[in-house]
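hiii so um. not sure if this is the right channel but i have a protein structure encoded as tokens and i wanna go backwards to a sequence. like what aa goes where. can anyone help
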């Protein structure tokens, strides 16, 4: 049976290099079904963002979520993917009705940037930022790791209407290894084709690329689509607008309607709901211990 919707880690045992492989099918199709993707190019870019975020989420330990956002003022204004530590994924795209550019840099516009955020339950959020100065996401992330981690890192990404796949290799920090080892592994990985990434299972692909290397392959980690939106979270977002803004909205309409941008779920708050939000917020503030 073909391996789909899973992440696999691997390690070059004789060299200081680690790797990961991911291929998404059902999770990718479910994640994108609520998005308006104006053409195959935007669809492919969003799928690559999702695959890349899954790969990067496996490089660090955290309990929470990793979010990759590519923001710009071009024909595409946002590409976003979120992956939890349990490999639950969701994504969104925002663009004009017509996107003619095929280069990531051109479609996002001048001054666009990639923001990588890790929100962990027991730590302050971490954020890394890099400008989008390359034509594809793999190139942008290569620059990101060179600047932020000072680690040689390469990604190969591909996505279409049915699948999104990725391959990742990175030198291990503080490992003493020969530059020639990294260059050889990188050169071998660089021979991978989009068709191989979409059709070969992980074992087959690694054998094709690295059959002369000693590679340890770890068990698959399942990936699935799941949106973590909730009425409580949407209520918190509304509270951030402030009481005066909420009252102003309710003067114009009977209720406030909010749609989740990731899954399309609809939330409705009438005047009584908003009043309860405000009362509960005041009560929670009063119950909080005073800090000196």
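sure thing!! here u go:
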């Amino acid at each position: 049976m073909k391996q789909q919707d899973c992440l696999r880690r691997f390690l070059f045992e004789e060299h200081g290099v680690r790797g990961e492989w991911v291929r998404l099918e059902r999770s990718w199709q479910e994640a994108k079904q609520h998005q308006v993707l104006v053409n195959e190019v935007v669809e492919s870019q969003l799928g690559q963002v999702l695959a890349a975020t899954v790969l990067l989420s496996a490089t660090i330990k955290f309990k929470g979520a990793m979010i990759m956002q590519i923001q710009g003022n071009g024909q595409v204004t946002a590409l976003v993917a979120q992956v939890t530590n349990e490999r639950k994924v969701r994504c969104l795209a925002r663009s004009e009705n017509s996107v003619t550019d095929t280069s990531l840099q051109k479609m996002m516009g001048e001054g666009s940037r990639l923001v990588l955020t890790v929100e962990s339950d027991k730590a302050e959020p971490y954020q890394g930022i890099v400008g989008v100065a390359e034509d594809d996401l793999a190139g942008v992330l290569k620059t990101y790791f060179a600047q932020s981690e000072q680690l040689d890192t390469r990604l190969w990404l591909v996505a279409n209407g049915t699948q999104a796949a990725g391959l990742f290799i990175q030198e291990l920090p503080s490992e003493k290894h020969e530059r020639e080892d990294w260059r050889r592994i990188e050169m071998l990985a660089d021979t991978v084709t989009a068709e191989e990434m979409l059709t070969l299972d992980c074992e087959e692909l690694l054998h094709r690329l690295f059959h002369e290397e000693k590679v340890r392959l770890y068990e698959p980690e399942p990936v699935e689509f799941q949106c973590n939106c909730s009425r409580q979270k949407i209520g918190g977002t509304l509270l951030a607008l402030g009481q005066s803004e909420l009252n102003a909205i309710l003067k114009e309409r009977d209720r406030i309607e909010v749609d989740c941008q990731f899954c399309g779920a609809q939330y409705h708050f009438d005047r009584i709901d908003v009043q309860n939000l405000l009362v509960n917020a005041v009560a929670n503030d009063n119950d909080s211990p005073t800090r000196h």
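oh and The chain has a mean pLDDT of 90.
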